[in-house]
Amino acid sequence: METVTNRAYAQMVKKASPPSKSARNIPLAFLIGGAICTLGHAFIKLYTSRGVPEETAFPAASVTLVFLSALFTGLNVYDKLAKYGGAGTLVPITGFANAITAPALEFKTEGYVMGLGAKMFIIAGPVIVYGIAAGVAYGIIIYLFRLY
Amino acid sequence: MATNIGQYTLRLDQSPSIIGSAAIGGKKEAEGPIGNMFDIVNYDAMFGQKSWELAESEMQHQAAQKVLDKCNLAPGDIQYLFAGDLLNQLVASHYGLRELGIPFFGLYGACSTMAESLILSAMLVEGGLAKKVMAITSSHFCSAERQFRFPLEYGGQRTPTSQWTATAAGACIVAECSQPPYVRAVTVGCIEDKDIKDLNNMGAAMAPAACTTIKRYFQDTLTGPDNYDLILTGDLGQVGSDLLIQLLQREGYDIKKKHADCGLILYDQRTQDVHAGGSGCGCAAAVLCSYIIPAIKEGKIKDMLFIATGALMSPVSVQQGQSIPCIAHLLHLSSTPNPKPQGGNL
Fold first, then answer.
1. CA dist., res. A26 & res. A30, Å (int)
2. Does residue B318 sit within a domain?
3. ipTM of this model?
C-alpha cells in the first residue's frame, strides 16, 4: 500500500484498538490481590494462635499460599481468577507459584526431563535470574559503602 | 486455460468446482453462532489423544475422512493434497494425514492457509494437471497457545485486541467444473509489513495486506464492492475489520455493507469472551466449509470474495524485535461458472 505511511497507519491502529479496561481492572486487581494477601495474613494469625513462633509462621504462611496456588492451578481455577485479578494475582507469591506450575503441567507431554524439568522455569526463570543478580549487586553496594 | 487479468489476478476460465467440504469444531466453536453447521463436533479438546498436537492431527484426519465420505470418494481418488496448520514443521498436517497416501504438499500461510491451499488446488485443476485435489487446514487453541503464547493454566490477562485461536478444521475437494461453488478468479497476495509489532493485535497487522489484495483484485477485474454479495475476510477480528474498511475507504472502495469476517462469524463476540474475535487457520477454514460453501451451493450467495489473511511471524522473530509480515490471498467464489470466452482475449 502506497497511500498510508507506517506512521499514519500506527495512528489509525491506535485509534481503532480498544484500550484495556483500567477502570475495572485496577480495582479488581486491588481487591483480589488484597484478598490473597489477607488470606496469607490469616494463615500467620492461625499458625501463631496455635503456638507456632512468628519467625516460623511467616514462611509457613508463604508455603501454604504456594501450595494452594499450585493446587488451584492444577484444578484449572487460578487462570480463571487471574483473568479478573490481573496484577492482583500476578504480584503475590501465588503468581510465582502459578508461573512455575502452569508450564510444568503444560510441557509434561514432552517428558519429565526435557519437558517438565526444563520448561518449568520458562516464565519464572527470568525472575530468579534477575532477582539473584539484583541481590548480588545490592550486596556489593552495601559492602563497598560499609552500610553495616 | 486460465487468463492473467491485470498484474495480479488469474481468471480460471474453466471455473473449477468445490465439490465437497467438511468442517470440524470444538466445544466453544459449537456453542457459537454457526455451531450447528459443523459436520463433526468434538467436545473433548484432546480428541481422545495424549497431546494437543496429536489432538489437532486427529482433527485434520477427521476432516479429510469426512469430506471424502461426503463426496463418496476414497483417498486414491484424490491426486494431490495441500495442507497446513500453525504448528512448527506443520506437525498437525504431517501426522494427521500420513495414513492417507495422497501426494502431499505442506503449506505455511498462517491463518491464510485455507485460501492458499484452495488457490493452488484450483490452479492445478484449471491447468488440467489434476482431476481432484484436496485442501485442508486446521488450528487448535491449546496447541497454538503453548507454541505462540503461554501455557494454558498460566494466569494472565488478554488484551482487548487479542484474538482467540479457533479449535477447528476445514477440508475441501476441488474438481473440474461441475457444480457450485465455482472458483472463478484468484489473486495471490504479496507479503506486506506495516511495522506492527504487537502479537496481541494481529488484526491490525493483517488489515493492510487484505486491503492491498482486495484493491488489486478490484483494479485487475474492473469490479467493485457492488459486484459481490459478500466480501468475507478470514480472521481480521473486530479491530482488523474496522481498519480494513477505513483503509479501503481511502482507496475509494466502500465495502462496509458487504463485509463480514470469519473471526466474527465463528464466535459471538459479546458472550463468548473472545475479545476481538476468532483467528487461526481453522477459523476461516471452518466458516468457509460449514457455512459459506453450502450457502453458495443453495444459491443464497451468488458472488463473493473470500480473502484469508495470515500473520507470518514466529515467536522467535517477535522476541528479536521484528515486526509482523502479513499476507492475504483472495478467491472469487460464485454460484455460476465464468462465461465461456467468445474468441479473442477478454
1. 6
2. yes
3. 0.89
